[in-house]
Write a sequence for this structure.
């Protein structure tokens, strides 16, 4: 149970919501939330208008969606689409159309990263098992007996990585290397958030906050018409202190950082964002990158890729391929720098 509590805390820290509601129109502006644990992530959905039967039904509907996608995308559930693909030994597997679509989305983003990002990283992420080691480190600190993978193990895992090893025909997925393992951890949370928003909007909701372990997606504006204010955690802050804030209206804010899941060994920091060109946790001049996008699945992928590729590459990419995206790099001195097109 203690390990679970630490995991939940870790997942909740990256982004903090400050609704800053006004005192007028109390019932209209009264938030009501529901929380669940799916895809190894704490999921919280917040609506406004108080504890009504309608809101309760909407919140339950969001959690039903989370469970649906957990059963499709999780690589820790034996009967999920992803687990079936990984266990197929290179044989074709028929999957849900949404699973196939999300795999395609992951492959599209892998193509822009120069090999640093890929959803075929499952064997390497399993080898490092950063989440379990982060839990052990959180409990025991420097006394934790954590083993770093040997170079030959890393090389063997890296040999299974490569987007070219995935073939998709319609809703049939084949891994051409039987040892390759899919891991949708860098794309699934954003996709799930987008589907929740789509559902809420279809039900007439105009103001809401969807938070999947730090992936924050806002529905419309706050009930008072103002933008949401989202706090970005100060790296390694134990109390979740915000380093800076961002404003969002009908947008997604996703942060990737080396402080979200990590451990230390012999004074060296090891975190969960792996560079697939080296097989080791990525070296970065900035401990976190926060990305504002329209759709959360894009922010999910891009926040990781921007962390891996750095600010100069990010600036060029946004200018050439993603003019509506904003990225905020937080350096080790607490300074924030912007990457994107000049704002009015």
């Amino acid at each position: 149970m203690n390990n679970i509590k630490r995991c939940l805390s870790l997942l909740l820290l990256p982004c903090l919501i400050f609704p800053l509601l006004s005192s007028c129109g109390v019932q209209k502006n009264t938030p009501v939330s529901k929380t669940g644990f799916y895809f190894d992530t704490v999921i919280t959905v917040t609506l406004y208008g108080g504890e009504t039967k309608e809101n309760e039904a909407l919140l339950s509907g969001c959690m039903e969606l989370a469970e649906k996608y957990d059963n499709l995308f999780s690589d820790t559930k034996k009967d999920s689409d992803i687990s079936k693909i990984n266990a197929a030994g290179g044989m074709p597997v028929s999957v849900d159309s949404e699973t196939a679509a999300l795999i395609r989305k992951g492959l599209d983003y892998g193509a822009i990263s120069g090999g640093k990002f890929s959803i075929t990283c499952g064997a390497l992420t399993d080898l490092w098992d950063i989440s379990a080691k982060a839990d052990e480190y959180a409990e025991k600190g420097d006394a934790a007996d954590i083993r770093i993978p040997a170079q030959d193990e890393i090389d063997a895992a890296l040999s299974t990585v490569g987007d070219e090893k995935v073939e998709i025909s319609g809703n049939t997925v084949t891994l051409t290397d039987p040892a390759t393992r899919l891991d949708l951890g860098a794309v699934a949370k954003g996709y799930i958030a987008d589907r929740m928003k789509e559902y809420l909007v279809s039900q007439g909701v105009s103001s809401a906050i969807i938070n999947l372990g730090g992936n924050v997606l806002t529905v419309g504006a706050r009930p008072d018409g103002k933008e949401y204010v989202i706090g970005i955690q100060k790296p390694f802050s134990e109390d979740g202190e915000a380093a800076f804030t961002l404003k969002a209206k009908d947008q997604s804010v996703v942060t990737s950082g080396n402080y979200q899941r990590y451990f230390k060994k012999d004074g060296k920091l090891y975190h969960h964002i792996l560079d697939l060109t080296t097989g080791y946790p990525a070296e970065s001049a900035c401990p976190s990158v926060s990305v504002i996008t329209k759709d959360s699945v894009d922010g999910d992928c891009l926040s990781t890729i921007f962390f891996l590729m750095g600010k100069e590459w990010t600036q060029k990419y946004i200018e050439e391929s993603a003019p509506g995206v904003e990225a905020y790099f937080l350096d080790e001195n607490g300074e924030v720098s912007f990457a994107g097109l000049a704002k009015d």
Q: What stands out?
A: The radius of gyration is 20 Å. The chain has eleven helices and 18 strands. The CA atoms of residues 58 and 203 lie 8 Å apart.
